[in-house]
Amino acid sequence: MNKLDNSRPFDIWIWSNKPEIRESTSFIYKKFFSYNKIFSPKQTRYHLRSILTDLFVVRNEDPQKYISISRSANKYKRLKRIRMLYLQYKYTMLILDTLEKHGYIEQHKGFRSEITSRETRIRATQKLMRLFRKYKSNSGKIFKRNFPIILRDDNKNEIDYDLDDLHIKNMISNINKINKMICSHHIELASQDIWDEIILTNHNLYNVRLNNKYRRIFNNSNFENGGRFYCHWTQQIPSKYRKYIMIDGKETTEIDYSCLHLSMLYGLENTKLPQGDLYQLPLISDNFRDIIKSAVNISINAPTKDCAAKALQQCYIDNKLSSKIIGFKPKELINMITERHSPIKKYFCTGYGLRLQAIESGIAEKVMLHFANNGKCALCIHDSFVTSVDDESTLFEIMKNEFNYRFGFQPRLKISRSN
Fold it and tell me: Is-contact 388 249, C-beta < 8 A?
C-alpha cells in the first residue's frame, strides 16, 4: 500500500486550548508571519492554530498517518452558518507552504489525471513534534466544536440554509439541549482495558472520545430527508462493546426498535404487522437472517431495483456468500421481500429510506428531550437507545408511547442489558 493512503481528511471541527498548541502557534507566528502586512494577523493565527491542532492530534493518533487537505480554491467555499470556522484558501496555502519551507511539515502535493486523483497530504515532522514537546503540559484539552445541523446536497456537499427559519431554530435549540444533557453526565466504558482492546483493532478510533455531542445530518437539500443523530462516540465503537457503556458509574440497558423501518412503513399504510419475524422468508434458512435484514434495508434505501441488486451483490461478497449458497440471486431475493411485504411494496426501491430517517429521527428527538427535561441521560444509536438500568422502564414506556402516537400501534421492542 502507498504510504500516502494511510490518511484521513483535515478536521476543521477539532480545536484545543492545550499549551503545546497555543504556544507553538505563537512561536511560529512571531517567527514567520508577524511581519506580513498583507494578511490579517487574527486570520493568520486562526488558520495556523487550526492546522497545527489537527497535525498534533493525528501525529499522536498514528505517527505514520497523513492528513489529506485540498489545494483547490474551489473547495474553500464559504458557508455563512460556519463563517467563524471556515478556512480561506489564501491563508491555508500560506500556512502550508510556510510550514513546509521551514521543515515543520512534510507535504506531498495532490494531482489529478484522467485515471485518478489525490488530494495533498501533510504530516508533522520531528521538528514540529519537538516544538510541541517544548511546551508540553498536562493542562488543556482537545475537543470537537460542533455545529448541530448539517444540510447536504445530492452530492453530499454541505450547503447553507436559513438560520432564521423557526423550524430550524427549534431543531437547533432541541439538539443543543440534548447535547447539554449528554455533557452533564459521565459516559464511559467499564474499563480502560476495553478501550485498549477497541483501539488495538480499530486504529481510526484512537481519538473517538472527542466525539461527545450529536449533530443531525439532512440530505438532498431537504429537511424531510435524513436528519439522524450522528457523531457521538457511543455510535462509533463496534456494537459488541456497547454493553460496556456506563452512565454516571452505573450499568446500562439498550432498547431497540425491532424491524423499525418495516414497522414504520406498515404504520404509514395503517396496516397491522404480519405475524412472526419480519426478516424471515420462506425457503431461506434462518442462518441467513442477517443477509435478509440487509436486503430489506437496501431495498428500502435504494432508488431503483438495479441499484438494490448491485448493493446486495456486494453484500453477498462482503459476507463471503454467493447466490448458490443462499439459493437465490439478489433480484430474486428482493422480489421475495416485496412479495412477503406486499402491503408496503410501493415503498421498496424508491429511495424512501431517507424519508423514514426523518420520521425516525423526530421520534429520537422526542425520546431524548424527555430525558433532558428531567435531568436524565438517554443515548441514541439510531434505532435504539441506551440509558442507565435505573431508567430502563422509563425509556421503554417513552419509546413505546412515541411510536404508538405516530403510527397507531405498539412497536416491537428488544431489551439488552449490560453484562
Answer: no
**What is the rounded distance in angstroms from the CA atom of residue 264 to the CA atom of residue 383?**
12
Does the pLDDT at position 304 exceed 80? yes
**How confident is the prediction for the chain on average, in pLDDT?**
92
Residue that is written with C-alpha cell 513534534 in the block: 129
pLDDT tens per residue, range 344-380: 999 999 999 999 999 999 999 999 999 999 999 999 9
Sheet containing 384-388: give its strands across. 378-380, 384-388, 252-257, 413-417
Model pTM? 0.82
Residue identified by cell 437507545 is 385
Query: pLDDT digit string (tens) for 102-122?
Result: 999 999 998 776 677 889 999
